[in-house]
Design goal:
The protein is mainly β and about 650 residues long. About 5% of the residues lie in helices and about 55% in strands. Strands 19, 21, 23, 25, 26 and 27 form a six-stranded mixed β-sheet that branches.
Length: about 650
């Protein structure tokens, strides 16, 4: 009996010890870190904490609950923890957009021994008010939509829609009420396009609720792109191509200096294979950064200026037009857009117009920069230089006129213009004393008498001095402008000591291989009595043939002048410097003038040079043929007068 009692007592004591061991197993949370508050649209937030156990535990299992959002990450299940060990763990709680109030959440851990522990978490959600707005498909010809969304967690009951900008917008509904997270879409119709400028025209749409403090608003932009055609590209029969911009001045094709000469070639094609397009116009535009067309401020040298009438364009045909202009000295520097359009004035621009081309940097325009000179040695330029007469002899009075132009980025109080040539003893100066500000020009004239000198072309140098302070000029031109003065006839005709005629010549056409070369020669009778002159040309045989002379015989009173047109046909494969002689013969005396031309190759086009020589040798021996010709002319004239 005693043995049984002892056994029972031992068993009871073991069970008590075992139960006491289970009762003392404890899991403890500590150092829990959560945000003091969160935004509704914050998304995931991290929760960190420590877990301590006083006994060894295996297979820890984690669960979480929350009244808002979800636990997206909890500590890994199945982990173990040793007796007395502390683990640092983390979890992630996702906060859904538009939620409000307070987040009440729990994290719970359960061990194999059935020991469990729970950590409560409480986080307030900040009340925020916000809007989003989106505009789509609004054009000049089509109504679009505006979508407004309450992206906050506060109800918005008085959202007003408004717009401001380059054109007008009308909304199908002006006041909106939106619960958190909801949207509403309204129709938006555009109008008021009369004042649209070239390029991007922007309207800003605002959605705003002023009943809240502070007020809440959102904005969106609508852009309507205005191209050169008044109603945009339309029709489809005309096509622009091969647009070539050539700067023959000091700048580049897309960076223009003041006074640069610009040539713009444009090819237009009628892509319709069956019908003509009548009364086609090609037009240039030059738009500043505000969208204003400044093309009228350019100095055009082509007759039609910025708009060229091409006439009718046959089906499936093309033609090319050329614009030529100078950038004025007073043109504002800055960034510009050069645009081109082709349209039918017969059909109307609203029915047939194109203003796009792949040659343009932005398809609808070419980016152009106009630059004012900032190099102090190049502030003063010379424009529209005129020399009269173009060909002179000793004792003649010469007038050289020009515009002195301030193309620099500084105003000038006083400027001195200089004309120099040592061989002719020219050292002339003219002062401009009434200020020459940026973009200003002032006419300057030099007048002098040609001294006794040899026959040839003289190079006259034009320079300037400026930056005038305390009686001195601080700056001078880095480079001189050069003009040529052709002096001829200073050598007297042998035997008589006087000249019988003066001969001048001007080029009336391009000097190009395989083409006609037209020269206008002016013959002036320098004698005191009336005289008949036989006009002839020679010395061209190696590079051209004579097509015609408009008047072989001219009768001139004393001091009278007449023009004679000489037409030569330039041979193929001829280029470079060539010359011929124009002769005027009266009786036994002859005056002559050598004409030099620089013939361009056929691919180059245009002439590149023209000058006159002074070979005025008096010829005393007359050929028998010329004597007979004169006698025949006199006989014919007498017979005609008797009739």
């Amino acid at each position: 009996m005693k043995t049984k009692i002892f056994t029972f007592t031992l068993t009871a004591l073991f069970a008590l010890v075992l139960v006491s061991g289970f009762a003392s197993a404890v899991l403890t949370f500590s150092d829990v870190v959560v945000p003091s508050q969160v935004n509704h649209n914050q998304g995931n937030i991290a929760v960190t904490f420590k877990l301590t156990s006083d006994v060894a535990e295996t297979n820890l299992v984690w669960t979480g609950t929350t009244n808002k959002g979800t636990w997206t990450v909890l500590p890994l299940n199945g982990q173990s923890i040793n007796a007395g060990e502390t683990k640092t763990l983390s979890a992630v709680l996702n906060i859904p957009a538009q939620s409000s109030g307070t987040i009440t959440a729990e994290i719970k851990v359960v061990a194999d021994s059935t020991t469990e522990e729970t950590q409560a978490i409480s986080i307030p959600i900040t009340q925020t008010s916000s809007l989003a707005i989106e505009a789509k498909d609004i054009t000049k010809t089509q109504a679009g939509t505006v979508k407004v969304t309450n992206t906050g967690n506060t109800a918005l009951n008085n959202i007003a829609l408004s717009s401001v900008g380059a054109f007008n917008l009308a909304f199908s509904k002006d006041i909106l009420t939106l619960a958190p997270g909801t949207s509403e879409t309204v129709t938006a119709t555009s109008s008021g396009f009369d004042t649209l400028k070239f390029g991007d025209n922007t309207v800003t749409i605002t959605a705003k609720d002023t009943t809240l403090s502070p007020s809440v608003q959102a904005t969106a932009s609508v852009v309507i792109k205005e191209t050169f055609c008044s109603n945009g590209p339309v029709g489809g029969d005309l096509k622009l191509s091969n647009i070539n911009i050539d700067n023959t001045g000091k700048g580049t094709d897309d960076e223009w200096d003041l006074l640069d000469e610009i040539t713009v070639e444009v090819e237009v094609e009628n892509t319709n294979k069956n019908d003509d397009v009548n009364d086609v116009f090609i037009e240039l535009g030059l738009f500043d950064s505000s969208g204003n067309d400044m093309v009228d401020d350019l100095d055009f040298s082509n007759t039609d200026e910025e708009s060229i009438d091409l006439g009718d364009l046959r089906d499936d045909d093309q033609d090319t037009v050329t614009f030529t202009f100078k950038v004025p000295a007073d043109f504002d520097e800055g960034n510009y857009k050069l645009a081109v359009k082709a349209y039918s004035d017969d059909l109307g621009e609203e029915f047939e117009c194109t203003d796009t081309a792949s040659d343009l940097s932005d398809k609808t325009f070419e980016k152009i920069s106009i630059i004012r000179e900032d190099d102090s040695g190049k502030f003063i330029a010379f424009d529209d230089i005129q020399i009269s007469p173009a060909d002179v002899t000793c004792g003649d009075t010469v007038s050289i006129k020009m515009d002195a132009v301030n193309i620099g980025d500084e105003d000038q109080d006083q400027v001195r213009v200089n004309l120099d040539n040592t061989e002719l003893g020219l050292h002339l100066a003219r002062e401009i004393r009434n200020n020459l500000d940026q973009g200003d020009k002032e006419a300057v004239e030099f007048v002098f008498t040609v001294p006794q000198t040899e026959d040839k072309s003289y190079s006259l140098a034009i320079t300037s001095d400026y930056d005038y302070r305390r009686g001195e000029y601080g700056e001078s031109s880095d480079e001189s402008e050069t003009i040529m003065l052709n002096v001829a006839g200073c050598s007297l005709s042998p035997g008589t000591g006087t000249k019988i005629a003066a001969i001048s010549a001007t080029l009336e056409s391009d000097a190009k291989e395989g083409s006609e070369l037209v020269v206008k020669s002016t013959i002036t009778n320098l004698q005191s009595t009336t005289a008949d002159f036989i006009v002839d040309a020679s010395g061209f045989e190696s590079w051209a043939s004579l097509s015609s002379i408009s008047s072989r015989i001219v009768s001139l009173d004393a001091g009278e002048s007449k023009d004679v047109t000489i037409t030569l046909k330039v041979n193929d494969d001829v280029s470079g410097q060539n010359s011929f002689v124009i002769k005027a013969q009266s009786g036994s005396q002859v005056e002559s003038r050598t004409v030099s031309v620089n013939v361009a190759s056929g691919s180059a086009g245009g002439f590149s040079g023209f000058s006159l020589g002074g070979d005025n040798t008096l010829i005393w021996v007359i050929g028998i043929v010329n004597v007979i010709l004169i006698i025949l002319i006199i006989v014919v004239a007498v017979r005609l007068s008797r009739r």
